[in-house]
Write a structure and sequence with these properties.
Order of helices and strands: HHEEHE
Radius of gyration: 14 Å
Distance between the termini: 42 Å
Structural class: alpha+beta
Helix content: 25-40%
Shape: elongated
Mean pLDDT: 92
Strand content: 15-25%
Number of helices: 3
Length: about 100
């Protein structure tokens, strides 16, 4: 089934909501004073308009408090519902610069 979502509307939600993730990164910095670098993450938007899955492409954060916090925050984001293929969104956060 072809993708039937609007990429511009997905990016609008990301642009509006990505600041909500800062709390997770601040908490991780408090736990780990050496916390710095690029943290790439990717998530899939489900047909129900909610984040369906999160991947963090950094071996240190594939599980643990940072991932748990990000999953919680992303769970509050709301996208339009749509049929068809689920889109993925990739973001990279630069920490400690």
């Amino acid at each position: 089934m072809a993708a039937q979502y609007d990429p511009a509307r997905i990016q609008a939600v990301v642009a509006r909501e990505q600041r909500t993730l800062a709390e997770c990164f601040r908490a991780e910095a408090g736990r780990s004073p050496d916390f710095s670098g690029d943290i790439p993450l990717e998530f899939a938007v489900g047909n129900d308009g909610r984040v369906a899955q999160l991947w963090i492409d950094h071996p240190r954060f594939k599980s643990g408090p940072l991932k748990d916090c990000l999953v919680r925050k992303l769970g509050s984001w709301r996208f339009d519902t749509f049929p068809g293929q689920r889109p993925t969104v990739a973001l990279t956060f630069g920490i400690g610069r």
